From TrEMBL:
Stored InterPro entries: Bact_response_regulator, CheY-like_superfamily, Sig_transdc_resp-reg_receiver
Domain of life: Bacteria
Lyase in keyword set: no
Pfam families: Response_reg
Record PANTHER family: CHEY SUBFAMILY, STRESS RESPONSE REGULATOR PROTEIN 1
Database matches in SMART domains: REC
Keywords, alphabetical: Phosphoprotein
Protein name as it appears in the record: Response regulator
Location of the Response regulatory domain: 5-122
Residues with the 4-aspartylphosphate modification: D55
CDD domains per UniProt: REC_RR468-like (cd17552)
Species: Georgenia deserti
Amino acid sequence: MHPPHILVVDDDETIREVAQMALEVVGGWRVTTVSSGGEALRVAADTQPDAILLDVMMPVLDGPAILSELQTDRQTREIPVVFLTAKVTPGREEEWEADGAVGTIAKPFDPMTLAEDVNRLLGREP
């Protein structure tokens, strides 16, 4: 059995590196990282990851716009998306979940618990 594959989408290189290390080393995930919404849409369609960890605030296409695009494509609509954001405000998480996200993880996140948090939101056993 192969390790689960997650696509990490964030325009901040440091966040991508820390998330990748945390998910690979602590969580046993196979991780692909990209820095933009356009890349995220292409890579998600090409690689069919088991999940996407998606930054909310990015230039050009933000997280909610990317989620909407993913959901309109039959190749990617079933991929669960977890938002990653520094700006969690009351009501926004519920709004994002109503739009199709499976949950939200706040930045700064704890690298030691990131994989556990993602697994919990996805309803996966660690």
